[in-house]
Automatic annotation (TrEMBL), chain A:
Source organism per UniProt: Ceutorhynchus assimilis
Family of this protein: Belongs to the LAMTOR4 family.
A single cellular component GO annotation: lysosome
InterPro entries assigned to the protein according to its UniProt record, in alphabetical order: LAMTOR4 (IPR034601)
Protein name as annotated: Late endosomal/lysosomal adaptor and MAPK and MTOR activator 4
Locations listed in the record: Lysosome
Major localisation: other
GO-annotated biological processes: cellular response to amino acid stimulus; positive regulation of TOR signaling
UniProtKB/TrEMBL annotation, chain B:
Membrane topology: Lipid-anchor
Organism (species): Ceutorhynchus assimilis
Gene Ontology cellular component terms for the protein in this record: late endosome membrane; lysosomal membrane; membrane raft; Ragulator complex
Highest taxon of the lineage: Eukaryota
UniProt keyword annotations, A-Z: Endosome, Lipoprotein, Lysosome, Membrane, Myristate, Palmitate
PANTHER family attached to this UniProt entry: RAGULATOR COMPLEX PROTEIN LAMTOR1 (PTHR13401:SF2)
InterPro entries, per database record: LAMTOR1/MEH1 (IPR028209)
The protein's name in its UniProt record: Ragulator complex protein LAMTOR1
GO biological process, one term: positive regulation of MAPK cascade
Parts of the chain that traverse the membrane: none
Family to which the UniProt record says this protein belongs: Belongs to the LAMTOR1 family.
Subcellular location(s) of the protein: Late endosome membrane; Lysosome membrane
Automatic annotation (TrEMBL), chain C:
Protein name, entry field: Late endosomal/lysosomal adaptor and MAPK and MTOR activator 5
Organism encoding this protein: Ceutorhynchus assimilis (cabbage seed weevil)
Major localization listed first in the record, in broad terms: cytoplasm
GO biological process: cellular response to amino acid stimulus; negative regulation of apoptotic process; positive regulation of TORC1 signaling
UniProt KW Cytoplasm keyword: yes
Pfam family, one: LAMTOR5
Family to which this protein belongs: Belongs to the LAMTOR5 family.
One GO term describing the cellular component: lysosome
Signal peptide positions on this chain: none
Molecular functions (GO terms): guanyl-nucleotide exchange factor activity
Alphabetical keyword list: Cytoplasm, Lysosome
Cellular location(s): Cytoplasm; Lysosome
Length: 89, 176, 89
């Protein structure tokens, strides 16, 4: 996936496994700070966070604010981050 | 009876000519010091000087070995004859270098994978599908937020339940 | 002393979809846990919440979610504690 095109997308970041920015667009254009924080976030712990409770590894991480959310997933050893608009509750 | 002499020691312990002195280590760390310990029988105590010679050639050969290794590894740029590359040769070299680079990169894939050894997320095949999935719904979000608020208030209520006095007099009156 | 917190956690776990919940203090030590939430995960939960707080320091604390196919782990930080709720999707 080169350029994610997701409904409600207002920005994206693609990082390599070491956290270096490979591509960025929109709200996240050149946003190395967000890249660093989210890369640090997913490398904080092992995939089986609580093996007692979760029988499978996690596929997605989201950080949900009032009106927007960051959605992160790992694919083909690249970290994909998309910032999406959320319907204000 | 024999005795074990270590004639070769680290620089700060031996004198210039390698003769043992009062600071010479009797036992040498076998890992850090690859110069072997010479076993000398007591009869040879008097002929100590004759042992300097084999030790000196050891040093010499070690030195020569180091020089040789450096010489083979060092690229003397000034000494290289500069010659103009033919166009064809240039193209060939570019191709060869690219092949070598790709070989190295392919070989290093194992090393690269280690950088994500500890990762909260699993590698998935279809990122678009995952990224466009439903976001946190209103109910779940409310469950989390309200539970957290309730917990904060409950934890703030945690206080020591004073049931008995901590300090109790033993009932031994000072006057009796 | 912790009766009130116990009651709160019990109430959370009344929901049949909830697998467990956990609360940790600012240092990542477990204050309380119920259900399938392991108290050993409290350190990770706090670390994740603290890292996420760096994303948008001026916004209200977001809800972090880690999802697999059928389970979700929600994490949110308040001033003095971090909470996590595990739920079936």
């Amino acid at each position: 996936m080169d350029r994610p095109n997701i409904q409600g997308q207002i920005g994206y970041l693609t990082l390599n496994s070491e956290g270096a920015v490979l591509a960025s667009e929109g709200d996240l254009k050149n946003d190395e700070k967000t890249a660093g924080i989210l890369h640090g976030l997913i490398t904080l712990a092992h995939n089986r966070l609580d093996p007692k409770a979760f029988d499978k590894g996690f596929k997605r991480l989201t950080v949900t604010y009032e009106d927007h959310a960051y959605v992160v997933c790992l694919s083909n050893r690249k970290i994909h981050i998309v910032k999406r608009q959320v319907q204000a509750t | 009876m024999g005795c074990c002499w270590s004639l070769l020691c680290k620089d700060d312990n031996s004198s210039q000519n390698g003769e043992p002195n009062e600071r010479t280590h009797l036992l040498v760390d076998p890992i850090s010091n690859n110069i072997h310990i010479q076993r000398v029988s007591s009869e040879n105590l008097l002929s100590r000087n004759s042992n300097d010679a084999p030790k000196k050639t050891d040093e010499q050969s070690a030195l020569t070995r180091i020089l040789q290794e450096t010489a083979t590894n060092v690229i003397d740029v000034a000494a290289i004859d500069s010659h103009n590359l033919q166009q064809q040769e240039y193209i060939e070299r570019v191709k060869m270098y690219n092949i070598k680079i790709n070989q190295v990169l392919a070989g290093n894939k194992g090393a690269l994978a280690n950088s994500l050894k500890s990762c909260l997320l699993e590698d998935v095949p279809q990122p678009e599908k995952i990224l466009s999935g439903d976001l946190l719904n209103r109910e779940d979000r409310h469950l989390m937020t309200s539970s957290l608020l309730a917990a904060v208030s409950a934890i703030n209520d945690i206080r020591v339940d004073h049931k008995e006095d901590l300090v109790v007099p033993f009932g031994l009156g000072l006057n009796s | 002393m912790e009766n009130n917190l116990d009651r709160v956690m019990e109430e959370i776990c009344l929901d049949p979809a909830v697998l467990g919940c956990l609360f940790a203090d600012q240092q990542g030590l477990c204050i309380g846990s119920k259900g399938q939430a392991s108290n050993e995960t409290s350190g990770y939960i706090t670390a994740i919440a603290n890292q996420v707080a760096k994303l948008e320091p001026n916004s209200k604390m977001p809800v972090v979610t880690l999802e697999n196919e059928n389970q979700i782990c929600m994490i949110q930080k308040a001033d003095t504690i971090t909470g996590a709720i595990y739920k079936k999707l």
